[in-house]
Amino acid sequence: MFTAWVVFHVLVSIALVLVVLLQSSKGEGLAGSAFGGGGLSGAVFGGRGAASFLSKATSYLAVIFMINCGVLAFMSASSSRLRTTETGGQQSEATSVVTKQAQAERDRYLEQQQQQQLLNDTTAPGVKITPAEGPPPTTTTPNESDGQ
Fold it and tell me: Hey, where are the domains in the chain?
């Protein structure tokens, strides 16, 4: 049912765009060229018939578009609530593949950081183990700093 509403919404959107583009503006727009130019008053809609028809069509399609947006928003929210109740009250969000990959990468990075912290905590107090990404720090003992 939701898919049918979305298809209807797309069709209304396309129709609305076409009707707006067909309207004549101060520069005559596409309505003049599409319906025989401004000189032909006996064109498809007549002299002013195109303007009144297209303006009414724009109004009706705009109202249908706005109502359809509200209906789709309501249907989307109610289906979200339905999924939440089906999972026993737990929030189940639909996540994209990219989001899942980014979360997995973040988890791997955090795990590496925790392992590195554990290694640093378990080694001798003066020895520091650095990750492989950066250069190792240079540590000097008091004897080396005297030049001996």
Answer: 2-86, 96-130
**61, 55 Cβ separation under 8 angstroms:** no
Convert the pLDDT of each residue in 69-116 to its tens digit: 999 998 888 776 666 555 555 555 566 777 888 889 999 999 999 988
Q: Tell me, what DSSP letter sits at residue 12? A: H
**DSSP state letters, 59-98:** HHHHHHHHHHHHHHHHHHHHHHHHHHHHTTT-------HH
Which residues, 6+ apart, have CB-to-CB distance to 123 below 8 Å?
Answer: 129
**Rounded to whole angstroms, how far apart are CA atoms 30 and 108?**
57
Total-model pTM = 0.44
